[in-house]
Amino acid sequence: MGLNNNHGGNIYEAARKYCLREEEILDFSSNINPLGISNKVFRALKDNLKDVVKYPDSDSAKLREAIGKYHSINPENIIVGNGATELIHYIPRMLISKKVLIPVPTFSEYEAASIASGAKVKYLRLKEDSGFGLDEKALNKALNSVDMFFLCNPNNPTGQLLPKKSVIKIADSAEKRGVVIVLDEVFIDYNEKESLISDAVKIKNLIVLRAFTKFFAMPGLRLGYLAANSLLIKRLNERRPPWPVNSLAQAAGIISLSDKAYIKDGISYVKKESGFLLKELSKIDGLLPFPSSTNFILVKIKNDGINVKKLYNILAKKGILIRDCSNFALSERFFRIAVKKRDKNKRLLNELRNIFAEY
Amino acid sequence: MGLNNNHGGNIYEAARKYCLREEEILDFSSNINPLGISNKVFRALKDNLKDVVKYPDSDSAKLREAIGKYHSINPENIIVGNGATELIHYIPRMLISKKVLIPVPTFSEYEAASIASGAKVKYLRLKEDSGFGLDEKALNKALNSVDMFFLCNPNNPTGQLLPKKSVIKIADSAEKRGVVIVLDEVFIDYNEKESLISDAVKIKNLIVLRAFTKFFAMPGLRLGYLAANSLLIKRLNERRPPWPVNSLAQAAGIISLSDKAYIKDGISYVKKESGFLLKELSKIDGLLPFPSSTNFILVKIKNDGINVKKLYNILAKKGILIRDCSNFALSERFFRIAVKKRDKNKRLLNELRNIFAEY
Q1: What's the Cα-to-Cα distance from B175 to each of B95, B147, B167, B171, rounded to whole Å?
Q2: DSSP 8-state assignment for residue B110
Q3: Please, what are the domains in chain B?
Q4: Which of A123, A251, A318, B167 falls between 20 and 30 A from B49, CA-CA?
Q5: ipTM rounded to 2 decimals
Q6: CA proximity to A322, closest of A1, A3, A10, A2
Q7: Most B CBs within 10 Å: which of A121, A236, A243, as the mutation test of the B interface?
């Protein structure tokens, strides 16, 4: 099951490897809202448990209605999936892409999905010295020879956010070349005004992906969605297998979007805590954290005496997981950490301070 | 979302169309264990709700271990999926089938999945006058020109069960011709000794499908699995997207298989109640029920004055759903009903008696 182990959040494998109990692991490797699941959603899940004896609504009609209302778009322009990753694999297959452009570093499933669908992959290297920014000239050149472009905004694992007006410019450029952009906004909830989801229905070649996994802290339930114009939706829906989304995920999704207080608190908590982590990480000799617009931070190890494998091992033995970023095609000097609650962030910072005082 | 509406259990659409409340619908259209979900599983779901904030185990290691133990097979020979239907769509795509043989009538997703994967479909008509049995000679001839064969045993919607020794003979015949058999046993729990799942790992071209949906009454959670020999498993697993099964389905699956009392009760309840329904249906002038080896019964309307659409409408207005079988490529005289609890079965029987007394 090769691909499955290349992601954060694999507390099961870590528990087996380091003889830890799953519940004692402090997991900085998966980017989940530190506030945990909303109380309202938790209660709704309890109330809906009895309904698992019924088939879920295959059309997810009420959920698509709630999502449509939240983003002010027509529910007919939305497709829901068994997590955003299911949709990432579904899109290049259904649109029969031949050549896909993928920035490097970014989320590894774009590449896996493209290859699985039979497409060739062209890579666009993001350069460290520009803070992993997209070079417009290089992008436009690369777009000439592909039919699909995966763009993660904010990008995973760099945390860099492109402002809406830049993405619109890229979308225009892609449209001129007949390239479909798959814009993955699963980490944009902290900067909702930069999202293009409400615009997707009007742009010819744009598919916007979102998820409940991260911001609403329910990766265990699997729930993601996409929005696009009617023509793309028609092509994507043509042979969609029935019952992609389980009934509890549907119920949780509907309640999540109505919990305005949770949404507001999640945004302000992460912004504050992300600032704290960035400031404290910067003070540690040997570490270079990159500024982030979302709930995780990419960090470079400047000290030559230690690489990420070694750091990962030291921390894992203490029950702390970080995300080794070497399979993002970064060097063995990069790791990613999620923003968690203050006490947990402090514990990680203390461990890092101790480790880097030694090296 | 064309395909999605061609199945039983769509209480959501029926509620909208007939102005019913979802919870007041008496649903004979979906084939779910009438005992409902096991109490042990329900408690386990409650206990595991808090874990939806973590990613599910992408490998479903503990669940595959439990399934392996239950069927006495190696967990490495098992793949779990987001419902059996997800796997039905996955198999012909991953094995790049060119031509698929499908009996008629049978579960409609075999055809949908084959067409979606780009394969051509060849149909093998099961004849009503032989009780919808498989004709060995016609089957062997048809197997010569295909590379995959979907076989549902017991068959949906006919309820007919092929004994194990007949299926082994078919598997031999398929193996000689290089044909992969996808043997869908999602309704075999009432006749476990006829299952080929423990043999699948030793047979070259056989994939056996099972589900938790029906027998364990949890269609809302989405959980199915397949077993096959190591070579087939390797090909199927090669580019499997991560996190196919949500964490609650994994927890429920593990507990289900350990609940021996529930399993025993479910089997004996359905056998008794299926016999009762068959006997009572036979007494109604105008109806011809077919003997069934599982938890549903196919019924033919003999009376010319009423067809299935009309019968469906009359019952739906009273809040009772039956499964119109015309999209199984049967004539407009067939419907399928699930075996439910005695009081509900009696209510349906009463309605049918009244209706057919009129026509």
Answers
A1: 15, 10, 12, 6
A2: H
A3: 2-30+261-358 (3.90.1150.10), 39-258 (3.40.640.10)
A4: A318
A5: 0.95
A6: A10
A7: A243
